[in-house]
Amino acid sequence: MGHYEVLGVTPDASMAEIRANYLTLARSAHPDVQSNAEERKGAEDAMRTINAAWAVLSDVDERSLYDRERMRRARSRAACPTFAESPVVEEVLRPVDDGDEPLFDERDDRPITPTRLPGWLVMAPPGLLVCGFGSVVLGSMVGISALVGVGIFSMVVAGLFFLLAPIVALGVSRRSDRRP
Fold first, then answer.
1. What is the DSSP string of the chain?
2. In a domain, 108, yes or no
3. Are residues 68 and 25 in the same domain?
4. In a domain, 109, yes or no
5. How many domains, in total, are found in the chain?
6. Is residue 106 part of a domain?
């Protein structure tokens, strides 16, 4: 049984659907809601399976890798149905890469991680750095110390923005993870 089947969603389900199904399943299958030891043991196994599926499908990178592997297996099963029908052989043997297929699916154009930073925060650091460097060089050549000072100040501000961008990205990411 695959991760999508465990969580009861289709492969094209949105993250909100996956999360909603995960929470529903986790609430019903959690071992703490079971009364006797046998039911608790079964619930622990079920919860492990549900958590494993959630761990893969909740992470954009892991889900993309999982989807690619599912597509690869579907293609290999279609090409060689006797190999795919034997689960024991499928688990033990892996087909040899003959170099005909690319190592990744070029049609998958999903971003690895979505960019959630404001545009000005993405463009300001390199822009300030280039302008500051240009000001320092031009000020040194012309002999205007004020222009050199402005250039150095601009490069220091660019460095601060370079440090600020990942902090803002982490904050935005944590805020979006908390949303239901």
1. --HHHHHT--TT--HHHHHHHHHHHHHHH-GGG--SHHHHHHHHHHHHHHHHHHHHHTSHHHHHHHHHHHHHHHHHHHH-HHHHH-HHHHHH------SSS-SS-TT----SS---S-HHHHHHHHHHHHHHHHHHHHHHHHT-HHHHHHHHHHHHHHHHHHHHHHHHHHHHHHHHHH--
2. no
3. yes
4. no
5. 2
6. no
Mark whether 88 and 50 lie in a shared domain.
Answer: yes
The model's pTM is 0.44
User: Is there a domain that residue 170 lies in?
Assistant: yes
* pLDDT tens digits for range 34-53: 778 888 888 888 889 999 99
pLDDT digits (tens, 9 = 90+) for 49-86: 999 999 998 888 888 889 888 888 888 776 665 544 54
Rounded to 5°, angle at Cα 161 from 155 and 165? 150
Could you give the C-alpha distances from 135 to 53, 122, 154, in angstroms and in order? 54, 21, 9
